[in-house]
Each structure stands twice: as C-alpha cells, then as structure tokens.
Request: fold
Amino acid sequence: PSPITFCLLLLPAAVLGGMLVLPACRLLKNYPGQDLLSAAAIRWGKTAKLLSLSFFLLAQAVTVQTVSAFSSFLNASAYPEASPWLFILLLTAAAAYGAYMGHEPVARFGSFVFAALTASLFFVALQLIPQLQWESVLPPAYDTAKEVIGLLIALTAGNAELAVLLFLLPTVCEKAGSVYSRWCLLWVPAMAGAVLFTAAALGDYAD
Reply:
C-alpha cells in the first residue's frame, strides 16, 4: 500500500485498538489501585495465569523481532565485518536490564530518549529537505481493497504499545480515555510524518 494509505489508516487503527483494550480498562476501573495482572487474578483466580502467559509471549515476540531487526540493520549498514551475535547479545542484555528495572522506570527513561530522538530526527530532516522527491509518494488509488484491509489489521494488531499503556495506566492519575486520546494525538501525526518523509526521502528506493 502507498504511504498515503498508511497514513490515512493510522487513525482508524488507533480507534480499533482502543476498542480492543476497553475490557482491560474496564477491569482496571473495577479494581482501583491494582495493576492489570493483579486485577485479573482477583477477578478470575488461577485462570488469570493465561493472561500472564499471553503478555509474556507477546513481550518475548516483540523483543526477538526488535533485537533481530536492529541487529540486522547494524550488521548490514554500519558494521558489516562484526559478528551479528555481538549486537544480539548487547541488545538482549539491554532488554533484560530493562525488564529487571520494571516498566515504570523504563517508561520514564523513555521520555528522555524520545526527546533526544525527536531532536535528532529534526536536524536530519532539515538536511534532507532539499532531496525530497514527493512525486514518488503514490496516491491511494493504486491500492486494492485487500491490501487496505490487510494493512488496517496489521496496524491494529501489531500495535504492541497498547499493552505497555495497559501496564502504565494504574500509575497515571488520569482517566484511561484521556491518556489514550493524548497518546493517539502524538502517535498518529508522528507516524504519518515519519512515513511520508521517509518515502519522499528514499524516492525510488522506497519500493
């Protein structure tokens, strides 16, 4: 699908994602002061272990995908002579340390990383503006219905950040709807801008 189609589907995907986590938000509301897994254990007893297992498998899948993708990028682009296992071990160690610290410290540290990354991308964008090829960004008319539906499902189901939000909600002194709405206001424009800018910067290589 074209980058414009991707951008147009971000908001519907965010809405569908919010609908998917409504039962979990309802559970947190019924058991104030409890995190998601504790609330599930109170509500369903030993059956809640299936929920814990599901989140564990999700975390492992996201970790494996992130580590392998970043390791492949470093090995192919920056350090082709280095062993890929070096990057895998270093990234896995960083992920293990983050798991040991817990989600709240990692989320707090992530705010500083986000600010640094945003500043870096801003200066990179300034350098790339003269080289942008907007004619390479194809309109949605070239996409089939099957491609659009598949992309919408992928954007909705592949949003692992929703799981992170569910674990962070008990530590935030605001309603879940307000937190999620503000997250969408940040996520949708940021993703749309990144996709359009990347497609225009890569030009024919975007294919």
